[in-house]
């Protein structure tokens, strides 16, 4: 199995992928440099359906593969990275959080229900990346990650995209933060994103301070941190 390592340097983070006659897949444009006997491949003519799905999911149309033996180093970020290990299961990633994965991991799309997408402010169609199978997946984060396990019927409510990915079996809905209708005007809280177990979720409670400073000043600190919250 390919090995992913997250490194920290000068306030940034970046990922090394160590390959031993193996294959990984990464987001388009994610490569920084590589060493060893590595072959890069990318598709040529995607179907119109794939192009449309990629645009709606805010994801790249192409995700090139890297095959061989050596080390592939991906672009650095003022945000961070988290390595998620699949064990014959499926996870749903918020738009823009996918960064890289082992070749054996299946990539697809998951479409939320129409009303959930509409109430969540995501438009008529809300597509997210779905990863399935066994192997490692690297996701981008804006800060440290906390993993929570929800019991059956247990809920977590968040105002915003604080949950960056969830097991596919975790239910996702949108509802008012307050029980009474007028409470939305007096509490200062509107709609919340509700996640119901059983299953695991990855939560991004707070950003790294460098990331926060750059984003609050309207700058684009880096490519990989573009999509979380």
Explain this structure to me?
The structure is a single chain. This protein has 229 residues and is mainly β. The protein has one domain: Mitochondrial biogenesis AIM24 (Double-stranded beta-helix, 4-Layer Sandwich). The protein is 12% helix and 50% strand. The strands form two sheets. Strands 1, 2, 3, 4, 5, 6, 7, 8, 9, 11 and 14 form an eleven-stranded antiparallel β-sheet that branches. Strand 1 and strand 2 form a beta hairpin. The chain is globular.
Poorly predicted runs of 5 or more residues: 51-57, 221-229
In whole angstroms, how far apart are the ends? 31 Å
Element-level helix/strand string = EEEHEEEEHEEEEEHEEH
Briefly, what CATH class? Alpha Beta
CATH topology: Double-stranded beta-helix
Question: Gist?
Answer:
The chain has 4 helices and 14 strands.
